[in-house]
Design brief:
This protein has 929 residues and is an alpha+beta fold. Helices cover 40% and strands 26% of the residues.
Length: 929
Amino acid sequence: MKNDDRTKEHPADGIGQYGGELNQGGLGIEGELYGSEKLYRVLYEEDPSMYFAVDAEEIVISINNFGAKQLGYKVEELIGQSIFRVIYEEDKKILKQQIKMCLQNPGSIASQELRKVRKDGSILWVKEVVRSVQAADGMIITLIVCEDITRLKQAEQELRESEARYRSLVENVRDIIFTISRDLTVTSLNPAFETITGWQREQWLGKNLKPLVHPDDLPLAMEIYRRVLDGEESPGFELRIRSRSGDYIITESIITLQIQDGRIISTLGIARDITKRRRAEEELQMAHDELEIRVRERTAELARANEALQVEIAGRRKVEEQIKRSEEKYKNIVELTTDIIYTSDRAGNQVFMNSAGYRLLETAPEEVLGKSWLRWIHPDDRETTLKKFMEMIEQDVDIFGFENRYVSKGGRVINALHNIRVLRSEEGKVIGTQGIARDITGHKKAEEQLRFQTTVLSQVNDAVIAFDNKHSIIYWNDGAQRLYGWKSGEVLGRQVEEVTRHRWLKPEDEREAYSSLESTGSWRGEFIQTRKSGEEIDVEASIRVLRDERGETLGFIAVMRDITERRRIEMRLRLLSAAVEEAPNGIQIVDLDGRIIFSNKAVKTIYGFSPEEFRGKHVNEMNADPELASRVIIPAIKETGRWIGEIMVRHKDGRIFPILLNACMIKDSRGEPIAMVGIITDITERKRAEEERERWAAELARSNAELEQFAYTASHDLQEPLRMVSGFTQLLAKRYKGRLGRDADEFISFIVDGIARMQRVIEDLLAYSRVGTRGKPFEPTDCEDILNQAMTNLKVAIEENKAKVTHDTLPTVMADPTQMVQLFQNLISNAIKFRKKEEPPRIHITAQRRGNEWVFPVRDNGIGISPEFKSYLFQIFQREHAASEYPGTGIGLAICKKIVERHGGRIWAESVQGEGSTFYFTMPVRKSD
């Protein structure tokens, strides 16, 4: 494939073309990039998530193999197509809004659940994460990462497989690779540092970089570092580094920023040892200097002595031959290198270029020599390149490094890393330049691909972790940070077991995992891990061994997914299943046609048929009325969603018995009916009990009616003889008072008082019996009017005791007005009677609506009720105090209770002795209220 065609490939293409250079001595950086890019490529193509990249016109420019296969397409079928080709019609608007928002706010992330349409028309639910980024060429690309949540939508009963791979750090590059923090503290060094400098890495980790740098090179290095921090691209520059022996190693260096979440986290540097190359250049220069000295010496000798001409010529020829051989040697080196080496005169015209230059520029010597070197510079870089060159001249700098772009004759853009040396005369005047330019186009594209793939991996919801052969963590994505709570900087370099603190569900799981990794290179299973907070989580893991081309293990890639919630759902489902199976009531599930598809154990107890015998039968077969289900029950469920009622069914032994059926519709996640479930209760015994209860209730009602009639008759019939005894006793007291003696007067007084009390008891007993026998029909009753009538009846008692009766707004209820007057009157009279001697009675009446009833509190400030008497408070003839202290018959509260219960309510009291009481009664809310 031609280089100019590669610009049309999607961001993940081109991986692998540098593989052959991995182990070549002079291409360490490319080798590392190849390894890294290869790992990212494997992750990109094989990770079980869908990755799309679309341009500003919403056209697919990249999709990974897995994503295309998930949708039933080949990659080439979707490249160049609208992203909305695979989006469900009703969800297109959602995705369009997400892309629009991300394009307006590059770098922002939008997430949404929506549906995709496979090639075969089936629906795939995904969770999409959308983000817009700017590529190196300025093009805005929208990245879409899709996680398949179809099975999660089905209560996570099925889960898709996902795995990813990540790059393993190439530790055998020959260049020094280091990272430093903003304060120049060394944070990492690769093994090449030890090989080149002789230092152990541990001697410099955590220390400042400055003591390693030659003092004369430090200002330039700091200036370049400052410019890189300000956002400029790093030029290549020479830097001398102190070795352990004390000598200085000359390196060709470049630095770049490491940015995460929009902030600088470190600086990455690459230093190539060019000491030998510099020495060779110095030797070449020395050879040229020596040649000029010898020429001058020979010329002087010729002027001084003509006789030694032949000898001198012979010597000169010998020296020239040596120079020719030396030039030939260096010419071969120059011609064999893959870098562009060229020389320009003072005017900037090319006077020399090696073969590599002609090949890269796709040109010939006659099109280069004698012409300005600026014609090959990219138009956008010419001004900047010339400006940097002039700065180098003005600052009297002999060597300068920078990056720019060439354009070949065929139009191919070449990214180049330059080192330029100014050539000066003995007087110090500029006479030309020499330069070396290295083609870093592949390097740049690999960097862009790495950035793209790193961005993609950062969007994956699952935790992606890479660790080496010693189980030290070398990669930790955002998903891992969300899952475990650890940030990447906190875990890199630590043992993965130390961070995740996993434990196996069964001892044999660990042996099976290592056996599978060794034999197949992968393992999938579950274990328990621990978050940073200490919380334990259930995790589903997919681990794969990462090997090099020779089959040697480089490390491991692990994808972890939190399945804690799924485990809880499964446990709830198991418990629910057990509860349904062991439920005392019969439970059956039938399809929409009425065919039985499930029966629990209790059904056999009820019907006598086993669950297997029920399966496939129509529910009509069980009913005494064979058409009831099809005619009534199933249509009602389909129309209203539920049917409850009692029906007669057949037992296996042929008998017919009653059941209570509570049936409802079952719907799927879209609200579509899928089946019906019925809960069956055998009510044979309940029916018998109800019949018995009704018989006893009728008997009790008859008995109560007879008792009430007896009480009314007895109390009414006792009135006449009691009035006769009272009349004659009063007549006796009037006529013979003082004539029968003192004792006789006292006895007559006792008789009169006893008769009066007996009359009050009979009257109260008569009133008690009339609550049930003489009650009036319920009608809308204004409780405020009722309260006013009661207060009118108690006017004398209220005034004599200086009582104050207040109330809030009271409702209208369905009640017997006469009995409601008696109820309020008894409660107020009771509060006045049991008053404190030191203060007048204060009575307040309120009402609150609570659900389907009205609650009426009647509060007073009286003497209260002792705790031991509360259980007797509403019983007839029960008194807490002697009649001599507080007169009465003990029937008033019993009458109140009977009135309230006749109205379907309740009555109770709350009291603190010595602090007053509150009597509560309720009235049901009826339709006419």
